[in-house]
Amino acid sequence: MAFNGYLGEMLLLPKSKDGIEHLWVVTLHPDNSGQTVIVNLTTKRPNSDATVVLDKSSHPFIHHPTVVNYTDARIVDINKLVNAVESGHFYTHSVFEKDELRKIQAGLLESLFTPIEVKKFCQGKFDF
Predict the structure, then answer these.
(1) Considering the domain boundaries, does residue 73 fall inside one?
(2) ∠128-73-49 over CA atoms, to 5°?
């Protein structure tokens, strides 16, 4: 499956260099310099940020209650991710549906755990 870095596209990559792979979602159209924002999904725990909770009806990859981990939201260069996928370092997954993606975008602005620089970067850029 090709990865172009489009809004709603998803890929599996670790949270850290040697970490466990998580599903990451492109939440914003890349800007002219290729910058976008990605967030990861993780299993819901008692202390999780529950701003957005997803379940198995949200996406085929999800099999149990899952949260969007806004604490790890990142501004990234989409071209680097595309190159990493093309070279086989990361793997893609099916795209999020529009309604689910809008929940994730709204939660990014709403969550108290989203890094301030990410909120500022996204301000006024979502289509809702």
Answers:
(1) yes
(2) 85
Nearest to 73 by CA among 40, 45, 101: 40
**What's the CATH number where 35 sits?**
2.30.30
Residue 4 lies in a domain: no
What does 79-127 look like in DSSP terms, one character per residue? HHHHHHHHTTSSEEEPPPPHHHHHHHHHHHHH-TTS-HHHHHHHTT-S-
> Which pLDDT score, from 0 to 100, does residue 83 have?
92
The residue segments making up the domain with residue 82 are: 10-122
Instruction: Judge whether 93 lies within some domain.
Output: yes
Q: What is the pLDDT of residue 120?
A: 97
Dump pLDDT digits (tens) for 21-75. 889 999 999 999 999 999 999 999 999 999 999 998 887 778 899 999 999 999 9
5 part of a folded domain:
no
Q: Which amino acid appears at position 66 of this protein?
A: T
Tracing tokens 């099916």 back to the chain, one arrives at: 94
Whole-model pTM: value is 0.92
How many separate domains does the chain show?
A: 1
